[in-house]
Design brief:
The protein is an alpha+beta fold. It has three domains: 93 residues, no CATH class; 83 residues, no CATH class; 118 residues, no CATH class. A six-stranded antiparallel β-sheet has the order 8-9-11-10-12-13, sandwiched between helices. Strands 4, 5, 6 and 7 form a four-stranded antiparallel β-sheet that branches. Strands 1-2-3 form a three-stranded antiparallel β-sheet, with helices on one face. β10 and β11 form a beta hairpin. The radius of gyration is 21 Å and the shape is globular.
């Protein structure tokens, strides 16, 4: 079964799982994400609502075969429909009640956040939105939308910024302050972060203490942008008591390696390339570069060797 056929089938059957809502339409949506990755989903419009959630399909599907088709025996269409209906119900039920003012500057300026992306891999997107260059990366601006305990967001376009009368400098000012408030940084030793992810007891001795650190934020979303927070890199240097290398593991977090542990930065570049190639989803890759924070100079630079 082809993906397009599955999407069409879901569009046809999903309204029967959403009878408590006044559904205006259910349609296939294609949204461009980071690094030029296009994701397909189902968009549901409800009468009287200003928001139409798009529920992406990939997370509900098994792996396709080499031809890109899906084995119908492995597809639990009823289960997929029920799960998508639950996700829609959560989104529509927890969306902020003040969405009518979402696009007005006085409201939206309190919801702006920073997101770091690759400049090279997002040139098409960046041609249509405000951004600030940061070495080989680009600082973009997104509007955060609270949805219960989750945070959704959308990119600020040039058209939006023009409508608001907001300069890039103003977007930066509010987005930085909001990011530090809404998405406070987390600096954590790698072994401790892995224990939390695996839900292992704090006292477990399975993992050795790690000299590496992870930097992200409390939501674990767009955490690489914490590199831009006032005084954060200096704080990390004080913890390590030395300068350090920064490995961009994804747009959501970075890995910190103390300078004394790396004799050859080329090894770190190979590590970043391998992680990006094997473990990081294409839409979440930040960069193939390695960065160095100089404690004495209080500055960051790209390792070119």
């Amino acid at each position: 079964m082809k993906k397009q056929e599955i999407l069409e089938l879901i569009c046809d059957k999903l309204p029967a799982y959403l009878t408590e809502y006044d559904i205006e339409s259910v349609s296939i949506c294609n949204n461009m994400r980071n690094n030029g990755v296009s994701l397909q989903g189902i968009q549901i419009c409800v009468s009287g609502k200003n928001v139409a959630p798009c529920i992406y399909i990939d997370g509900y599907l098994p792996r396709p075969d080499k031809s890109g088709e899906y084995d119908e025996k492995k597809l639990d269409i009823d289960g997929i429909l029920r799960s998508m209906a639950d996700e829609f119900g959560y989104a529509i039920g927890h969306f902020e009640p003040d969405e009518a003012g979402l696009y007005e500057w006085e409201d939206v300026k309190q919801k702006l956040i920073l997101v770091l992306v690759s400049f090279e891999q997002n040139e098409n997107m960046l041609s249509d939105c405000p951004y600030i260059l940061f070495h080989d990366l680009a600082v973009t601006f997104r509007v955060s939308v609270l949805c219960g305990s989750r945070i959704g967001s959308f990119v600020v376009s040039n058209k939006m910024a023009e409508y608001w009368g907001a300069t890039t400098k103003e977007l930066w000012k509010y987005a930085l302050a909001n990011s530090m408030r809404l998405l406070p940084p987390v600096i954590e030793r790698l072994d401790q972060a892995v224990k939390k992810m695996m839900k292992l007891p704090e006292e477990t001795g399975i993992l050795p203490d790690s000299p590496f650190y992870i930097i992200t934020n409390e939501k674990g979303m767009f955490g690489a942008a914490t590199l831009l927070y006032d005084g954060l890199l200096k704080q990390v240097a004080e913890i390590l008591e030395e300068s350090f290398y920064i490995l961009p593991s994804s747009i959501h977090e970075v890995l910190v390696v103390p300078e004394n542990l790396c004799g050859d930065p080329a090894v770190l570049k190979d590590m970043v390339r391998d992680v990006n190639g094997e473990f990081t989803d294409k839409s979440e890759i930040l960069s193939y570069s390695v960065y160095f924070y100089d404690k004495k100079e209080d500055c960051i630079r790209v390792i070119t060797a």
